[in-house]
Design brief:
Order of helices and strands: HHHHHHHH
Number of helices: 8
Helix content: 40-55%
Structural class: mainly alpha
Distance between the termini: 33 Å
Strand content: under 5%
Radius of gyration: 18 Å
Shape: globular
Length: about 270
């Protein structure tokens, strides 16, 4: 199994207002690697604003608020690990020291996600929660009835993982459910859900055309038995799509009622 460091066709940057949108006939590994690097930058960029707000709280005060913010940070770290496992599974090395992926504040989120939202660092306040955090955590539901029905079916599954992150209890039909969902959902393309749905479609297309897509070194898979969610061991398309679904589920909240957001306890 060979590991490759991708050279993307374009370089996603913090604040970039677009990301590579491959079609079913043009998607290739370089574009997939570019999208995954953008996802890594996106999840990374959300952590410092929460940490800055959390560390601004005075010791012994606002402990409940601090606890909520910390839980969000932990989930963002889970999302980074999930993206990292997908990247390692397809043979591209996650890098946090790439200067072109370091977030700039104030600035926009990577990948053209939520282009009207400016993310900055600052002390915790009602205004910051309303203007920045609630913007990042804005729930987004797939609009198509077929996608919503499929999502409701998936919600009935409860994947159980072993200590290494392997799924233990799902049938083949259940394992394949995320692929069907991503084919039917129609998230707004500028939302977090839309961005990850596009990655899911590119993964699905490439997996059908390339038998060795998931040929990365399995020793690079990270496990986290007590993670604030599910850290899947990614070995194939099924587990990659379940990993993406976990990120969307925690971030978008999969709210059927748009007034119900993912906070407290859910992250982007």
């Amino acid at each position: 199994m060979n590991e490759t460091v991708s050279t993307p066709t374009r370089t996603p940057e913090a604040g970039d207002r677009s990301f590579a949108r491959a079609t079913a006939t043009t998607a290739d590994r370089a574009e997939l690697h570019s999208l995954l690097r953008t996802a890594l930058a996106l999840e990374h960029a959300t952590i410092p604003p929460y940490l800055a707000a959390m560390y601004s709280l005075k010791g012994g005060k606002n402990q409940e608020v601090g606890g909520i913010i910390r839980s969000v940070v932990m989930q963002e770290m889970l999302h980074l690990a999930l993206i990292g496992n997908i990247m390692n599974a397809v043979g591209v090395t996650p890098r946090f020291d790439d200067p072109e992926l370091v977030p700039v504040y104030p600035g926009r989120l990577a990948g053209g996600v939520m282009p009207d939202l400016e993310v900055s660092l600052g002390a915790c306040s009602i205004e910051r929660v309303r203007e920045v955090f609630m913007g990042i955590e804005l729930p987004e539901a797939p609009l198509a009835p077929a996608g919503q029905r499929e999502l409701q079916s998936i919600s009935g599954y409860n994947p159980q993982l072993d200590a290494d992150g392997n799924i233990q209890n799902l049938t083949k039909e259940a394992l394949d459910a995320p692929e069907k969902f991503f084919a039917l959902a129609d998230y707004d393309e500028t939302s977090i859900g839309g961005f990850y749905q596009h990655i899911a479609k590119v993964l699905t297309d490439l997996d059908k055309r390339e038998k060795d897509l998931f040929s990365g070194d399995p020793r690079r898979q990270v496990s986290w038995p007590h993670a604030p969610g599910r850290l899947y061991r990614v070995t194939n398309l099924q587990t990659a799509l379940w990993a993406i679904l976990e990120i969307i589920d925690q971030g978008e909240g999969h709210a059927q009622d748009p007034t119900v957001g993912p906070l407290p306890g859910r992250a982007s």
